[in-house]
Every structure is written in C-alpha cells, then in structure tokens.
Amino acid sequence: MDYEDILANLKKKIYHPIYFLMGEESYFIDQITDYISKNVLTDAEKSFNQHVLYGKDTDIETIITHARRFPMMANHQVIVVKEAQNIKKIEDLEAYVKAPLKSTILVINYKYKSIDKRKSFAKLLAKNCVLFESKKIYDNKLPAWINGYLAAHKYSITPQASAMMAEYLGTDLSKVSNELNKLIITLPEGTKITPEHIEKNIGISKDYNIFELQNALSQRNVLKSNQIINYFAANPSSNPITRTISSLYYYFMKILTYHFLPDKSPNSVASALQVAPYFVRSYIDAAKVYNPKKLVAIMGILREYDMKSKGMGNVSSSAGDLQKEMIYKILH
CA nearest 120: which of 162, 90, 154? Predict the structure, then answer.
C-alpha cells in the first residue's frame, strides 16, 4: 500500500490494527503518524486511549502490554512507537503481529532504515498489517513533487522556481514542505509562484543562483558568470563550493550526454536527460558552445577543484577563491 492509499483509507476511517512505517524518508512516516494521532480519537478519548512510546526507552514486552489493553469509552486506542529502530530484536513483536487486537491501532515508526524483506518477520508484517516503506525521493523527481504539493494546496509554480527550490533545499521533504508552507501562508490562493516570490519569502536570490550561473556559462557570458561566482564567494554559507561543483558536474555531464543522443527532438532530450521540457533549450544552446572535448576537460577541472576543496593540493586558497579559479578555467 502506498502513501496516498494509506491516507485515503484513513480519511474514510478504514483502520488497520498495525501500521509498520519504515524507510529513509521520514516525511511520509511523520505525515501518516500525525494523521492517525490527530484524527482517530476525539480530544476527550485521547486522555485514556492514546499513548506514545519511544524506542530507546521501551521494549517489545511493554509495547505488547499496551497494545493488548482494551480502549476505555472509545472504539479504539492508539499506540504510537517512535524511534522504533532503536528497539533491540524488533522481530520479537512477531507474536503480537500474528494475533493483533482489532481495537488497537499500533503505529511503529522505524525510521532511516528498513527491515530485511526477505525474512519471515517482514513477510508476516506484509500479510497481517500495513507495511509501508518510505523511500528517499530522487533529485530529478523533486521538482515534480513540489509541483504536486503546491497543486494540492491550489497553487502552481514556474519550472525555474521549482528547480531553484529543489537545488537549494535538497531532498529532505520535511524541510522542503516547511518552506513551501511559508509561501502558502504568505501568498493568496491560486498564486503562480515565481523566483521573485522565492527570493522575497525564502531568501534564495533570483539573480545569483546556480541556474543563473549555468545559463551564464552555457552562453560563455564571462561578465555575468563572474558576477554570480563573486556573489557565491561573498556568501559561502548559502553557496558552498561542494554544491556548486556537484550541480555543475551534473549540468555539464548532461550536455555531454546530449552530444551523443541519437534522437535530439525536445521530448526525447527531456526524457533522456531527465529534465523538464522547459530546460531543454538551455542544454541545446550549451552544446553549441561546448564540444565533447571541452566538456571532458571541464569534468577534469571540476574533479580537480573538488579535491582542492577537501584540502588536497590546496595550501591556502579560500573556498571563494577556489570557485573563482574554477569558473575562470571552465570559461577559458
């Protein structure tokens, strides 16, 4: 059962005795847990029938003891076990999983890791309860996730603004959703969010960011490239060299890939490079400026400065100076 199905059933008051929520991405686990905690019981019922246990402070015997109690003046009791990944021998829960109490809703938060699906315990969970694995979202899927999140709240966003947020916030969905909620609270419903909105409300510069740097480099615009990289050097905490190198590496690698695509139609390019169609023109234009030989040389430059940023072959240059040197070599 996936995240959307679980929430849809919960909203229909279709409950299961056990929810075993595991995986690297905590956002979906928290969302399901929060919904159950807030909506299954009334405020009056929660006093006697809702309990939170923590993995580092509890054990399987205590969890089972709580789970086998009957609710008081309510149809259900809710037991939430947080940090369950810290419980030793989680497999000892097997006895309860085989015969759970139907009036109990036991929610197990097993974060940042997953149980071995090949083992009998995992197969038992899959058979007798809701077993959900919350996987990390891939970088190239994040803009689409942002679009969907905003659409659900009756907002939209431009491709550039979505890509800006994805690049600067990373794939921590809790962090991304918090920043999106700032925009939702601030802007009128139905707003199409632009880079200007993001700059004003989140603080990511619309003029001095990695995408503007990529555009400037794609045109070999020396002046603009230097203006942006000087801004990065002056604001190292919000523009770390490691992120600049990583972003440029994937950008130039996609340009190199473009050169060898058999089908260079826009839709085919977008699919092959895993980018939104909006950005295809940028890669096509950049490929006219950088031939494969130069792109291979750029990969070498990026690797060189990645090593220098980690102190290898670098005696005294600051991260800002390294970024300036790196961009100079790419352009010349």
Answer: 90
